[in-house]
Amino acid sequence: MAQINQVRTRRQLSNGVTLIIQENHFNPTASIVGYLKAGSIYDGTLLSNSEQNSPPLGTADFVAEMLMNGTTTRTWQQIAGEVESVGATIDIWGQRETIGIVSDLLVRDFDTVLDVLQDVLRNPNFPVEQIDKHRYQLHSTFMAWEDDTYSIASRMLRELVYPEGHPYHHRVQGTEDSINQITQQMLIDFHQRLYRPDRLVLVITGDVDTNQVISKMDDVFGDWSVDLGSETESAADLSIRIPEVVLSKPTKQIRSMMDKSQADIALGHKGVTRSNPDCEALYLMNQVLGGSAGIARLFNRVRDIQGLAYSVWSSLAPATGEGAFTAGAGVDPKNVDRAVESILQEIRSIKDQGITAEELSDAQNLTVGNFVLTLETNKGVASALSIAQLHNLGLDYIDRHEEIYRQITLDQVNAVAQKYLFPDQICLAIAGPYQADTTT
Amino acid sequence: MSSFSTVTTHQLENGLKVLTKEVHATPVASLYIWYRVGARNERPGLTGISHWVEHMLFKGTEKFPKETIKRVIEGNGGKWNGFTSMDYTAYYEVLPADKIEVGLALEADRMQNSIFDPEEVENERTVILSERAGAENSPQFALREEVQATAYKAHPYQWGIIGWNSDLQTMTRDDLYSYYQRCYVPNNATLVVVGDFTTDRLMEQVNAHYLHLPAGQPITGPTTVEPPQRGERRVTVRKEGQLAYVSIAYHIPPASDADLYPLDVLSTITSSGKISRFYRELVDRQIATSAYLSPTFSKDAGLAWVTAEACADISAEQLEVSLLEQMDRLQNDPVSEEELRRAIRQTEAQFIFAMDSVSSQAAQIGYYETLVSYNYLNTYLEQIGSVTPSQLQDAAQKYFGADNRTVGHFIPLPQEIGSSTGFTEVA
After folding, report:
1. Which chain B residues contact residue A260 at CB under 8 A?
2. How much is the pLDDT for B368?
3. Using one digit for the tens of pLDDT, what is the confidence trace for B374-397?
4. Is-contact B28 B97, C-beta < 8 A?
5. Burial class for B152, CB neighbours closer than 10 Å (0-12, 13-18, 19+)
6. CATH code of the domain made up of B233-413
7. Nearest-Cα residue of chain A relative to residue B244
8. Closest by Cβ to A295, choosing from B74, B274, B283
9. Interatomic CA distance for residues A299 and A327, integer angstroms
10. In this predicted structure, what is the pLDDT of residue A282?
11. How far apart are CA A339 and CA A307, in angstroms?
């Protein structure tokens, strides 16, 4: 395949910036995809022992969102103008573990876009006026989410699965209270501490010349120094250990919103880390349970046979820590209890009886085939390489992907279903025109 | 670089038009089949029938029974789905290139042999009612439905694709099946295949699967023409919620009209990115969290929608005033050469990005062929590039006047929120 067989190069600049480059000369476009390890797990008390220095919840995301809002030499209008005038995009957003970076551009504009990208990562100046505007926008966004049954159910479930204090408990964007505490100095401090070249990974794919890209990257990032004075922490000091999650008793939380037409249910419990060797087998299990539309049991039974819901699904979110296993559906309020019971029944059935050889083969074909389809675009290839780098899967992960999934046996899948599904220790969140049964 | 000048047209005797384009970048092929049937072909009592029929095509044929049809594409490593609009219903498969015949076979068979089992129809009724209820949860959906119904009084574009609840509750299996038999005929469809194949070999497969399908009666669209609007219309939706929303709809001509080019450029100037006017004048000034101008590209005369979500503490009235200021400005002052140049460059880049993927190419070819002609794609950039500031102003004056608009407000009522947490056995 044209893109997969292209030579792939990984290079680390002397200051620690990691570059991965893959050429693809089919279209005069390029994508830059990457991350910087400064996500919301660094919010709260985990960053420092001193309470006073703790960045409030939402700080990491706030910093990421402010990057495009002004640097020491560019206003936000200049940043947007330079990028958008050539039809390019740069998106930077906060996530749990990292900030995400995605840029699409016509390759003729590579230098222009790269210069803006390095500037916003290195030299944001966090103008007070922009801070206040962003805070107000967040306030409106939180209100819109509070009107959305799916957002509410997802948030409640996350808070039930991860205990308070766990870095996955809080919303990446923080809370009304926490974002009100964020000051300009906190943003500056957070940026200074965590935005370092040795925490940055950029993958460049497209109609580029590898050696030229390396040389350009060296020009724009090469003088970014790690040494910021005596207080500089080593990379090891900044690494965060995500604590293991203890399964709870079954827990249910309800938000009644009687003027809505439909209820959203979300249920689940802790999942696995990406480094867990069972991760891929569990992924195949989830494809059969609810990770697809065609072959998944939840879709076929809860939607097609029982007609209970338009949307019904399950997902895994393996991460550095134990990302959640989640299932959910949007259902008529009178069917909430039946839908919950049906979903639990499917989870129990997979845990106890496993999947069939035919289902395994379908799940393997689906997984392998769809992965190839995602490699159709520059952005798709770059995203796959970026994820592989984040989780230390190896530069050749996308070449080995098929072999990895084809080798998984039925016994392995059924063993991980048994090991990692806990239908009797499920957390359940319901938001919509539904009221708690007062008899329970 | 790949372009749309290499599309090959094949006309089968039964009326099926086949458009193919070889792209050998990756071993992937994408197939789309477009039927010229959508909400515009419906009538009161049967609103939502096109969308429901689409759902039924996933329920099986004799050759691909329910259990098989579910697995045939995904089990071969592909992706598939269907979607319905006002003007068309489309289905697609993206597959490893050596498996594309599976998609061809499936689409040929379900064009005429879908079963519409009565029990399946009843199950799907609750699924579609659930789909509608899910949409109703969104204030934007509730408002859009009202504005659309108010902007049109005669043409079928007045109802949404999903249909009205009472129609969804009463429609019968026979209604669905006869609609399907009438509309799903080769002479009412376009098949588009883009990807890593050789055209001769692919056409052998197409002929083997499609040539025998009998043509049906020609399908005609509605004869009703929406009468001109003679004054502003207003509508309000009051529902529990958090933020206010405003939607303003202006009547515009169909996709085939050359005025769609300047309207497209106006959409980019007002709505694309942070340098756009709406971002600078509404989002940055903390009036809206988002605001867009989007002209519909439709078979019959459509609407240009201005939609915005208000910031906290901003009322629908305040938001409307700011939006209308911008719409007045488009009519009163010419757009600067620089703004225009920027918009053209943004459009060019988006067009080139879309060439990255065979699926997006197949989607575009079928979309334009269904609404105008796929040749639209070959002249599109040239047409956009030749738009002038005075054409933009002329289009704004022609369509964005007060008498041609329907203004909708979503007024959020205080929520009665109840919540509870319990430690109970949930099963």
Report:
1. 136-137, 240
2. 97
3. 999 999 999 999 999 999 999 999
4. yes
5. buried
6. 3.30.830.10
7. A144
8. B74
9. 11
10. 98
11. 10
